[in-house]
Specification:
The chain is mostly beta strands and 393 residues long. It is built from 1 helix and 27 strands. The chain has one helix at 341-392, and strands at 14-16, 21-24, 29-35, 44-49, 57-61, 76-81, 86-91, 100-106, 110-111, 115-120, 126-130, 139-145, 154-161, 165-172, 177-183, 193-197, 206-209, 217-223, 234-241, 248-254, 268-270, 277-280, 285-288, 299-305, 310-312, 316-320, 327-329. The termini are far apart.
Length: 393
């Protein structure tokens, strides 16, 4: 309630007097007085005091803000409605220094009661997003909540960057939230969605969420090769899984070396084609020609980056296969053969079919032999019977 203190002892003649108000830093405070009778505009003023209504300084007439060391004149605006007998005062971009008591004062009617202005800092909002593990193309819900202990409605501004900066502002009561929906795109990966409380986007308390978090993975793949005009060549692929797509690739090599002083050898960056190193397709591929046994133990790694992050692969070590002129990596090893799993499966299928045919053939041969054997025994028996009959005669 308005403080019922008086600036002067004269009887007041107001039908509406300033009320207590609480405003967040950066907001706008408004006070209003309505006179019982139409006053002389040149004889009414807005006044302000810091501690109480007892002492005051003049801020404005009914139409004009006056120079004042307490409140910046540029932030004051006043108006007077002659039909409603109402005088209004607005203070924009409120600061903590504006805290105090505000009243109307008339030479002929005396002072009004005081309306007390309290200025508070905006609360820290609470952010969340759902679902918890979305993918590109999913619709997410962004939630920004004003804490229950906030004293006044708070302006919340959702802010994020896509192709253009998005700003959505709502005024939210304590314990309530501002919700927005958004369809995730590749460019949202590891991008913050911020909610800012209060009237200043640069200094207001804020919270943020990162709804889309797809990690960048990088690995080196040794591709199958065959000897060419330049001897044995090794081909490497910088294989990435990335959202958004990677835009930069770089190779590094580390040759084995022994240093007596205990220092470690340094990685050599290969960014362009030089000597026997060829960098192809924007750095995605690395070809090394004229591979010899001196390259045994060579380590190769790849660096990749996109607009959100970067990553480096684990190194792959080149291994000279024993008693051969071939090379492999510590990942593929020298046990790798030229046959693919599909080829092995076909061989197994053919072997199975041949086995079935052999078994069937042997079964047929066995049946034929058995029939032949029965017929042969039958024929022998008949011959013996005929000989016996002849002997009896």
């Amino acid at each position: 309630m308005a403080l019922q203190c008086r600036l002067l002892s004269a009887q007041t003649k107001f039908t509406k007097e300033p009320r207590d108000t609480t405003v967040e830093v950066g907001g706008t405070a408004s006070f209003e007085c309505t006179f019982a009778e139409l006053p002389d505009c040149e004889s009414v003023y807005w006044v302000q005091s810091r501690q109480s209504c007892a002492a005051s300084s003049t801020l404005a007439t009914c139409h004009t803000a006056l120079p004042n060391e307490r409140v910046d004149k540029s932030r004051l605006s006043v108006s007077f409605d002659e039909r409603e007998y109402t005088m209004k005062l607005n203070i924009t971009n409120v600061t903590m220094s504006d805290v105090g008591h505000y009243a109307c004062w008339s030479y002929h009617g005396g002072p009004s009661s005081c309306g007390r202005l309290r200025v508070v800092n905006p609360p820290t909002p609470q952010c969340s997003s759902s679902p918890s593990d979305p993918k590109v193309g999913d619709t997410i819900t962004l939630d920004c909540r004003v804490p229950m202990n906030a004293t006044v409605p708070t302006k919340l501004t959702w802010h994020w960057e896509t192709s253009s900066k998005v700003k959505i502002t709502n005024t939210v009561h304590p314990g309530m939230s501002s919700q927005q929906t958004h369809v995730l795109r590749d460019t949202d990966n590891y991008k913050p969605f911020m909610c800012i409380a209060g009237n200043s986007l640069s200094t207001g308390p804020q919270c943020s969420v990162y709804p889309l978090q797809i990690h960048l993975t990088v690995r080196v793949v040794l591709l199958p090769t065959s000897p060419g005009n330049n001897g044995i060549a090794l081909k490497f692929l910088c294989h990435t899984q990335s959202i958004p797509a990677t835009t930069r690739h770089m190779w590094s090599l580390l040759y084995p070396a022994n240093f007596t002083n205990g220092t470690e050898p340094e990685w050599l960056d290969v960014t362009t084609t030089q000597g026997r190193y060829q960098v192809l397709q924007s750095g995605r591929y690395l070809h090394i020609s004229n591979i010899t046994r001196r390259d045994d133990g060579l380590k190769v790694r790849c660096f990749a980056s996109n607009s959100a992050m970067n990553a480096t692969s684990k190194p792959v070590t080149i291994v000279n296969c024993a008693n051969t002129n071939s090379f492999a990596s510590n990942v593929t090893h020298c046990t790798v053969t030229t046959r693919t799993p599909q080829t092995d499966n076909k061989i197994l299928n053919y072997a199975g079919i041949v086995t079935i045919y052999v078994i069937a053939f042997l079964a047929i041969v066995s049946v034929v032999f058995h029939i032949w054997h029965i017929r042969r025994e039958k024929k022998t028996l008949i011959t013996q019977l005929e000989l016996t009959e002849q002997q009896n005669f």
